[in-house]
Prior knowledge:
Radius of gyration: 27 Å
Order of helices and strands: EEEEHEEHHEHEEHEEEHHHHHHHH
Largest sheet: 7 strands, mixed
Strand order of the largest sheet: 1-11-12-10-9-8-7
Number of strands: 12
Strand content: 15-25%
Distance between the termini: 41 Å
Helix content: 40-55%
Shape: globular
Number of domains: 3
Amino acid sequence: MTLRPCSLPSISARSASNTAMPEAAPGEAGRPEATAVTLALGSRRGNSICSRLSGATRCSAWALVMMPSLICRAPMQRVCSVQPIAPPTTMSNLLDPKNDYVFKRLFADAPTLLAALIDAIRPQAAPIARLTVKDPTIDAEELRGKYIVLDLLAEDTDGAQYNIEMQVRRYRAWGARSAYYLAKLVTGQLVAGDDYGGLKPAIGIHLLDFDLFQDPAHREQAIWCFEMCDAVTPTVTLGQELQLNLIELRKADRLQRTTGALSAWIALFEHWQEDQTMSQIANEPVRAALDKLRHLSADAETRRLAFVRERALHDERSLLKDAREEGWEEGWEEGREEGREQGKADALRQIAMNLIRSSGLDDATIATATGLSLTDIGALRQQLQ
């Protein structure tokens, strides 16, 4: 048996004048008429200086102009408060939907939008009547965790299992990793004594922010669907228990060969900050997703967590880069006289050893990052003990 591609059809700042006037704060009466009050919100929020003059409270103009992330309320009752909010939600500062934290927030509590996305990617399948997201919550520690993918697990009314990922990192053993997690969706359905006939399809939906297939022969295809089939007669499949759908987003956008709903979703992921492009999208689920992205982008805490996640991914890339550079240098030097391939193998082992020493990662993660087998990683770990 072999895997083969399956068939595919073609807030601005608000001034005191438009702010509701609250009751005077207790203890305000009888205080000195001219008092300068500085409200410092720290370096991230900036400062707003409010002055009380002649019995009235007013905010300095520069605070409103320079700090659009502040609301300054300045009623006549000498009460001035400053509250942190997100920047105005213009198209240019919308959060990136390819950030896997933002991606999960977009769809985790919106199963109808997620079903619409899956239907667009799998037009050959029957539309999903109802979808349940099985892991809608996000653990705060996951945002800081390196080598963690914030994916979505879902189940439809027929029991089919879905794993949906926005993937921004290309691992060396990417295919093996994808097959492993897809297989876990199948094996996780049964316990001892269960009938194999009760197994439901396991369907992977992976959106890639990189080109996975770079050979010249593959540069004109960006949408892939893999199933188990016969090598001689590929039209014969071994059931539908395993299916992996991949979309190389950058390539798909570059080729411009998709139409309909899928084209609209690709436009969202690639051009979410372009007002002219997004204004031409008529697909209702995509427009609803864009509205939700605006809502998320207007929330200061969501923006902070998206930044935390992005920083963790940058740290991960830096760690791998450092390990690789050191590993390549040491590995090539050790294997230079034994030939190029041996030098490459030595370099990969050195990278793995660097990760074992410095990162605290488990064997499976290091194997994924380097392309070495679990047996090799285990042997290296014993060697270092």
